[in-house]
Amino acid sequence: MKKFFRLFAIQLFTAAVVLGAFSNPVHAETFETDAQLAAEWQAAWDFYKFYECATAPLPLTGRSQVKRDISIDIDAPIEHVFTAYSNVDNHVGLHSFLKRVVTHTDRTEGGVRYVDFTAIEDIPVVAGIPATSKTHAQQRIHPDEFFYETDSWSLPNVVTHQKIVFEDLGTGGTRVTEHLTFEASVVLIDFTVTNGVSSHQETQEGLKEAIESGAL
């Protein structure tokens, strides 16, 4: 038991350091350079890996986990849908939160493409007033199997796991299913899930329209 509380104390201290480093006032845009965002991404990723390996989202840790699945059918071949949909740059402007994406690394290993990036979002928190959020993420694209995964971390220690699967409907259409897992404090989990699902649904609709119209 002493070992657990000692470990938990270390986690809280690490979280406090990370939160303090990433805290910024409410505004419509960040002022960090891409290099500074890349350094923040690395610190967030290191903390995320440490926290995920050391703890589970149990009530004792004050965290909760919620899973949601959302799907959409797009009238276009799977190869085209997969290429357009998996390009995170194409998501910018398709929902009101996402303002821009900063890619830090883009590499391919063992047939899997790894994209490390930071998404800049304006999220309405109080009375519709937006707070700028930096979501640090890693995307792993599996082109031969038509799916990709994304793990992300943002303040205040909100984690999202995504697995997006593409299914050939055999009629020239494609079904895209997003398997979403949200992890946050018990205080924030409802807000996280509601806003997360709605933003993903809005992006799905935007991508469907853009792909079917030929814009993407």
Widest beta sheet: strand line-up: 1-7-6-5-4-3-2
Quick one: biggest sheet?
7 strands, antiparallel
Overall residue-averaged pLDDT value: 80
Provide the β-strand percentage band: 35-45%
Helicity level: 25-40%
How many β strands by DSSP? 7
Keywords: Signal
Protein name: Polyketide cyclase
InterPro entries: START-like_dom_sf
Organism: Planotetraspora kaengkrachanensis
Structure report:
- The structure is a single chain.
- With 216 residues, the protein is an alpha+beta fold.
- It has 4 helices and 7 strands; from the N terminus they run ααβαββββββα.
- It has helices spanning 2-22, 34-54, 78-86, 189-213; strands at residues 63-74, 98-109, 112-126, 129-142, 147-154, 158-168, 174-185.
- The protein has a 7-stranded antiparallel sheet with strand order 1-7-6-5-4-3-2, with helices on both faces.
- Helix 1 (2-22) runs antiparallel to helix 2 (34-54).
- The protein is globular, with a radius of gyration of 18 Å.
- This is Polyketide cyclase.
- Keywords: Signal.
- Residues 1-28 form the signal peptide.
Briefly characterize the structure.
With 216 residues, this protein is of the alpha+beta class. Helix content is 35%, strand content 39%. Helix 1 (2-22) runs antiparallel to helix 2.
